[in-house]
């Protein structure tokens, strides 16, 4: 076994216990939230400088994009997203467009029939008593009305099918992408915002697709039809109508620019309301225990007030546009009709043409209000689509390898797999360096307990092994020159066994290989290897099969006990599930539940106790049969009987595999072959528990204090 720890600044706390979200891959900021009293998601408010954190990709320190709910969105991402959603439905979209085209042609034929009736059908009736032209006009008008209704009905059905398929695909994309994003992202981007993206923002897009696009297409087609017809009827009237669109175009442009800003704020405001609501309901027990109802009411009212103001701003923008557009439209209609009447009186224009032009002008400007409604929906949907596109544009900080490798076959003579940390360091963007550079080897089959004070870096070490995070890039050589060098072993460490050459059982195991060509260009900053394979090159499914982490929370999903045990192996049969539970010692309490293994444990496993949830999680891990098992504070929240039951289960689940046990309670260390004592991100002691207890180092002090606490 080997441990090498290199110099480096000691962090103040472990990010597992630090309040607030975290972001990896950042240099240390000594003025940042190192004491756990500042939310690191908000970044450093100071200016960059010597010893200060560099600006994050999302924005400068103090301007955190996550905190403001404004994830960077690549240029044109919203348009590309909408195009990718509609592309599979091109034929249906084309068919719907044809239906609307024909429907608008039927609608716009009415004024032409009126003009024909005035200028031709009525004179024929009055002069020759010929009813034929007037009857033809009436029949034609009826046919156009029926055709318009029929084609509109067909268009609505076709558009609805397209819209629902698009929204179904979009919600699925958001859900799948959110699951694929790394743990660091979810630490910083709250679940309430994800809920807002997949509900409120998708709903805004639904309103646009259901109503807005139909209105837009109808407005565009009617304007084109009417202007062409007006020019055909009389070029002068058509030209005057066309000129009146100049002030309207300026109004539309101004409305779009102002309303987009308003709707961005509205989307952010409703997301903040949902985040607060979800946070309060998830923490309802401490809220009621500490009488936080009034304080939460006040905070919620403030957030709700911001949402109210954002809605009010949107309504005011819409009202301003409608009033001004109607003023322009009515003025234009009045001016053109007066001019047309003068031409009729002077004999330069037929009365039927003026009547048709008046009808067309009213139809030309009536859609302006509908255009305003569309722009209202469009700007709301554009702001929502921008946020969704920003979310979908996020790439995982822990990416899957381009050419994944498989783990080598397990040596049947060796339990578990060898784990090697080689020149690994880790730092959060806003919290400074957590783990200074170190190297560590965990032989196959060894159970290693990691102990230390809160904030020592224990959970971070485990998350690197589970590849929830990747190691941070190595510090520049120049910065290493000023680091304190490793000191000689203390008196308590001198009795520790020194690194030895590989045993005969280890010599046949694959050794860490040199970096491949694809690795050499990567700023690696150290590697974590499993049987010689860099975790960054390992196929993700193989990694999750080979390394399983059991957390302190022992999260259970809504569903039956059997479904929760089979989470890691969904194809497992009932006999295998029950055998895993029996091996752990969970069968008796499961059998005593109302429906046994088919009992629904409900949300977060709330129907059973914390100790029972932990036993179910152990049965889940045993059934998954990983090569490496990580237990993160598995007994810290249990009472004494629950802890003893879990410890008995631990002996079963740890047998025959490499294990890392993060321990707050030293009673857990009894199952370990080796103990690592961490302090300030460094491994300060390493050895068998009995030898460390017999010494005078930190573990001996911790053990003595723990033993005294039992008396």
Automatic annotation (TrEMBL):
One of its GO terms (molecular function) is ATP binding. Signal peptide: none annotated. The keyword Isomerase does not apply. It is found in: Cell membrane. InterPro entries: AAA+_ATPase, ABC1_TM_dom, ABC1_TM_sf, ABC_transporter-like_ATP-bd, ABC_transporter-like_CS, P-loop_NTPase, Type_1_exporter. Keywords: ATP-binding, Membrane, Nucleotide-binding, Transmembrane, Transmembrane helix. The chain crosses the membrane at residues 96-118, 138-160, 216-233, 239-256, 348-365. It is a multi-pass membrane protein. Residues 1-73, 468-532 are annotated as: Disordered. It holds the Pfam family ABC_membrane. Residues 419-705 form the ABC transporter domain. It comes from the Bacteria. Residues 475-521 have a biased composition (Polar residues). Residues 95-380 form the ABC transmembrane type-1 domain. PANTHER family: ATP-BINDING CASSETTE SUB-FAMILY B MEMBER 10, MITOCHONDRIAL (PTHR43394:SF1), ATP-DEPENDENT PERMEASE MDL1, MITOCHONDRIAL (PTHR43394). This is ABC transporter ATP-binding protein.
């Amino acid at each position: 076994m080997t441990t090498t720890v290199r110099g480096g600044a000691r962090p103040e706390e472990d990010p597992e216990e630090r309040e607030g979200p975290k972001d990896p891959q950042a240099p240390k900021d000594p003025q940042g939230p190192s004491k756990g009293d500042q939310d690191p998601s908000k970044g450093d408010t100071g200016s960059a400088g010597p010893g200060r954190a560099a600006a994050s990709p999302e924005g400068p320190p103090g301007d955190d994009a996550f905190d403001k709910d404004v994830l960077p969105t690549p240029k044109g991402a919203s348009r590309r997203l909408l195009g990718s959603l509609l592309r599979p439905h091109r034929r249906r979209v084309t068919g719907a467009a044809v239906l609307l085209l024909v429907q608008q042609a039927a609608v716009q034929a009415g004024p032409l029939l009126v003009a024909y009736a005035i200028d031709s059908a009525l004179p024929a009736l009055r002069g020759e008593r010929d009813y034929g032209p007037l009857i033809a006009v009436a029949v034609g008008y009826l046919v156009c009305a029926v055709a318009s209704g029929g084609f509109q009905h067909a268009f609505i059905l076709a558009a609805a099918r397209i819209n629902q398929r698009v929204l179904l695909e979009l919600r699925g994309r958001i859900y799948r992408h959110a699951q694929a994003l790394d743990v660091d992202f979810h630490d910083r981007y709250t679940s309430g915002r994800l809920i807002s993206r997949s509900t409120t923002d998708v709903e805004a897009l639904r309103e646009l697709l259901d109503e807005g696009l139909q209105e837009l297409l109808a407005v565009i087609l009617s304007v084109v039809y009417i202007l062409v017809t007006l020019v055909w009827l009389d070029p002068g009237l058509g030209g005057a109508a066309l000129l009146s669109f100049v002030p309207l175009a300026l109004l539309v442009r101004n409305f779009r620019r102002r309303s987009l800003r308003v709707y961005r704020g509205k989307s952010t405001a409703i997301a903040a309301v949902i985040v607060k609501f979800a946070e309060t309901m998830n923490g309802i027990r401490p809220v009621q225990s500490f009488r936080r109802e009034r304080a939460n009411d006040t905070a919620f009212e403030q957030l709700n007030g911001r949402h109210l103001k954002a809605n009010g701003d949107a309504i005011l923008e819409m009202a301003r546009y409608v009033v001004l557009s109607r003023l322009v439209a009515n003025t234009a209609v009045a001016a053109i009709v007066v001019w047309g009447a003068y031409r009729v009186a002077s004999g330069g224009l037929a009365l039927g043409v003026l009547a048709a032009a008046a009808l067309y002008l009213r139809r030309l400007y009536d859609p302006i209000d509908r255009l305003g409604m569309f722009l209202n929906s469009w700007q709301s949907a554009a702001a929502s689509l921008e946020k969704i596109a920003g979310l979908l544009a996020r790439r995982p900080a822990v990416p899957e390898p381009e050419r994944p490798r498989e783990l080598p076959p397990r040596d049947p003579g060796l339990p578990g797999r060898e784990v090697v940390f080689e020149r690994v360091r880790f730092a959060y963007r806003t919290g400074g360096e957590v783990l200074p550079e170190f190297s560590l080897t965990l032989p196959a089959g060894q159970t290693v307990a990691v102990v230390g004070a809160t904030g020592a870096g224990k959970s971070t070490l485990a998350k690197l092994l589970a590849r929830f995070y990747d190691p941070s890039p190595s510090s520049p050589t120049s910065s290493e020159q000023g680091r304190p060098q490793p000191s000689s072993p203390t008196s308590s460490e001198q009795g520790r066994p020194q690194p030895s050459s590989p045993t005969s059982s280890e010599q046949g195991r694959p050794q860490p290989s040199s970096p491949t060509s694809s690795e050499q260009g990567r700023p690696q900053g150290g590697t974590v290897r499993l049987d010689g394979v860099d975790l960054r090159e390992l196929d993700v499914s193989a990694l999750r099969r080979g390394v399983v982490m059991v957390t302190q929370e022992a999260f259970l999903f809504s569903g039956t006990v059997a479904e929760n045990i089979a989470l890691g192996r969904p194809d497992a049969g009932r006999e295998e599930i029950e055998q895993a539970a029996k091996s752990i010692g969970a069968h008796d309490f499961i059998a005593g539940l109302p429906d046994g293994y088919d009992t629904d444990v409900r949300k977060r496993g709330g129907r059973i106790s914390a100790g029972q949830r932990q036993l179910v999680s152990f049965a889940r891990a045993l059934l998954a049969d990983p090569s490496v098992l990580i237990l993160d504070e598995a007994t810290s929240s249990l009472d004494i009987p629950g802890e003893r039951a879990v410890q008995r289960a631990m002996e079963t689940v740890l047998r025959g595999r490499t294990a890392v046990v993060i321990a707050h309670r030293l009673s857990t260390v009894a199952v370990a072959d080796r103990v690592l004592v961490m302090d300030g991100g460094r491994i300060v002691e390493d050895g068998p528990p009995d030898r460390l207890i017999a010494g005078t180092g930190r573990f001996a002090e911790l053990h003595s204090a723990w033993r005294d606490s039992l008396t």
